Amino acid sequence: MNRIVIIIAVMLSGLMLRAQTPTGYFHYAPFMDINGDPYLETYLAIAGNSVKYRDVEGEEDKVQASVEVTMIFKNGDIVKAYRKFNLKSAELDILKDGKPAFLNLERFALDNGTYNFELTLKDNYAKGEKFTYSDIITINIDSTDLAFSGITLAESIKPTQKRNQYTKSGFDIIPFVSNFYPDDVNELSFYAEIYNMDKAVGQDSVFLVTTYLEGNPTKRMYTEFAHKSRKTAAPINVIMKSFDISKLNSGNYNLVIEVRNSKNELLGQHKKFIQRANAEYNELDVDYTSIDISRTFAQEITNFNQLEDHIYAIYPIANRMEQKFILQDFKPGQMKLMQQFFYNFWKERNPANPEAEWNIYKDQLKIVQEHFGYGRRRGYATDLGRIYLKYGPPSSIREDHLGQQQIISGGGADQTMVDAVDYQIWHYYKVNGQTDRIFVFVKGLDKYSLGGEYVLLYTDVAGELSYDDGLNFNSVSGLLRDIDSQMLRDIQSESSRALSRFLSGQR
């Protein structure tokens, strides 16, 4: 049987461009200038170990790499911006300097709108085909009302000594061209701008900016990473901040910028998706017994079975530590502990009104139960329901039917015929900062274990279950040909449907 590698660990979600050569990372952020005109910043980093180096003429023991970069922005068939240039590394002493990444920042004057973007990379010192990446980029910054720029994640922020391509607002903002923070990076720095606060609250009026990290999709607010500052309203207000993330657990998060007026009314919010891998730190379990639930909505839930169901229902949006608590075998004697956990869960997501946050989610549970409940299995325990609760409704759903399929084991000797297969493809235009992502759900692949319930077979969303060893999604039928019965069992045992399996054993 072919080697099957199932990847559950947190994955790099920033765009990584791979070809034979070179390898690069790309991000972008829209901004607005002092005249109210929008522009786009693009950030590109080339991995130094993915390109070829040549000796620098006239410099003994020095080498340098060079990559041809082409960027094209189109609106329909009309080219709105075009730029072609050679991006060179620093002159390096290979024995001393290694092969660090080399960066580029470009600024494009582009009107609000949607653009078809094409990026081409070619190693000038290596033979091989050009590598081309395309994306859809939208710029939409209101010049008359409260608006946010994109958020630039920064490797460093320092006062400018001599103006250069990275200079902005009197600082050199060196971009961190990824939204993935590995173990050896323990600081998260960022730069952003808020526009038209003078129009929103009045020139020179005071307003409050709060920056913090929240779990994604848990919405848990990590107060230890929160910072509040008072600002004076101006046409452009600059926001710069750094977080020590050495004690940030591995997982998915949103970096949040929140603006409130002097009455503490929320005026606007902007988010940036990030991922963290931190093998050096594990968050301690919360002592829920210390949570005060007197005169709270959680204290009023006194039916054990109802509260137990409520707790199971929040599993899809819980973080790892909370999921660990949820998968306990609850007893009626733990009623107060369950209430304390349930209240704390929603309080961490909405400290001002945890009950309102629960009521919003409860409405989503009704939708999930109505559309995705299967037999005695609750809607939230199905793969369709879990993805809906975690990421919201998809941009589009394609549902279709395939005839009898032939599943071929790795060696090709064993073949299994299965009955007709139904599938759904959920497409998300935007999810966790990623564009054009899909989930493929199937039913009918294994009548003994999957039955008539749709199960998640494939997704290209970073951080979700993914498969290696050639399982590229070109078509559903092609995907089916690449799987075998052992892989189906692997999918079931290793996927995030732990709650579904748990409940199946309980009831």
List keywords for this structure.
507 residues, alpha+beta, Immunoglobulin-like, 3 domains, six-stranded antiparallel beta sheet, 28 strands, disordered N terminus, GWxTD_dom, GWxTD domain-containing protein
> Strand share of the residues?
35-45%
- Proper CATH architecture of the largest domain: Sandwich
Residue runs with pLDDT of under 50 for 5 or more positions: 1-20, 407-412, 492-496
Rg, nearest Å: 25 Å
CATH class annotation of the largest domain? Mainly Beta
Name the shape in a single word: globular
Helix share, percent = 10-25%
Protein name: GWxTD domain-containing protein
InterPro entries: GWxTD_dom (IPR030959)
Notes on the structure:
This is GWxTD domain-containing protein. It comes from Salinivirga cyanobacteriivorans. The protein has 507 residues and is α+β, with helices and mostly antiparallel strands. The chain has three domains: 14-276, Immunoglobulin-like, CATH 2.60.40.2550; 288-351; 388-506, no CATH class. 18% of the residues lie in helices and 40% in strands. The protein is built from ten helices and 28 strands. The chain has helices at 94-97, 197-201, 304-313, 320-326, 335-347, 354-372, 383-391, 476-481, 485-494, 498-506, and strands at residues 6-7, 15-17, 24-32, 38-46, 53-55, 63-75, 78-88, 102-109, 113-123, 131-139, 147-148, 152-159, 167-168, 171-175, 180-181, 187-195, 206-215, 221-232, 236-244, 251-260, 266-276, 396-402, 405-408, 415-418, 421-431, 434-443, 455-459, 466-467. The strands form seven sheets. Strands 11, 12, 13, 14, 16 and 19 form a six-stranded antiparallel sheet that branches. α3 runs parallel beside α5 and α5 packs across α6. The chain is globular. The model is unreliable at 1-20, 407-412 and 492-496 (pLDDT under 50).
